[in-house]
Amino acid sequence: AECKAAVTVAVDLDDASISIKAKKDTLREVLALATTMLRSPYGTEDQLKEYVGKTEGAIKGRKDNPMMLASEEIAKMLFPAADPRRARSPEERLEALGKLSVEKLLQFHRNYFGADGMLVDVVGQLTAEEARSLLDPLVKGWKSEKPFQVERSAAVERSRVYSSLQPDALAGRWLSSALLEGGEAPEHECA
Questions:
Q1: pLDDT digits over 59-105, tens only?
Q2: DSSP code string of the chain
Q3: What is the full DSSP assignment across 13-62?
Q4: Would you say 145 and 111 are in contact if contact means Cβ atoms under 8 Å apart?
Q5: Is the pTM for the entire model greater than 0.70?
């Protein structure tokens, strides 16, 4: 059967989010499918090569863009050199991109993706108790190996300026795009 839902996954340096739009009568199945996808990451070398190629092109295409250069310089002022959130030059981003591997990306997922610390917002005709009864069984026991914590400076909270391709964000973006763009995800059919 067809679920008729929209699922969007987004990852940046300090969080990951999933947005699900579904009718109440298919929500249970859609949540189960989305949870299966998030709990069971996969990726192939071919998918990674395709992602790296597209990303390299995007980085090189923006390399001399004055707006990007200004944004990077501003972001560099917010964080010390050793901080992983500090903006990187296009050359540094390309170097980091070249070091990616499927195993490193899957390890990133094991390390940082989990339901511990999860926040849920529900909009629609669903009570908090109904939402809890749908989600709790799906995420029970799903914890990241290394809970991801980011110390946020006041400047970052005010500006929310981030470099677009830090290694952790890159890993999460690749995983989420691999999950949503195809491949062989674990099977799950809607009832």
A1: 998 888 888 888 888 878 887 877 777 888 888 889 989 999 999 98
A2: ----EEEEEEE-SS-EEEEEEE-GGGHHHHHHHHHHHHHS----HHHHHHHHHHHHHHHHHHTT-HHHHHHHHHHHHHS-TT-TTS---HHHHHHHHHT--HHHHHHHHHHH-SSTT------SS--HHHHHHHHHHHHTT---SS----PPPHHHHHH----TT-HHHHHHHHHHHHHHH-S-PPP----
A3: SS-EEEEEEE-GGGHHHHHHHHHHHHHS----HHHHHHHHHHHHHHHHHH
A4: yes
A5: no
- Asked if residues 78 and 159 have their Cβ atoms less than 8 Å apart, the reply is yes
What tokens were used for 74?
Answer: 């501003």
Q: What pLDDT score does 184 carry?
A: 42
Say what percent of the chain tops pLDDT 90.
22
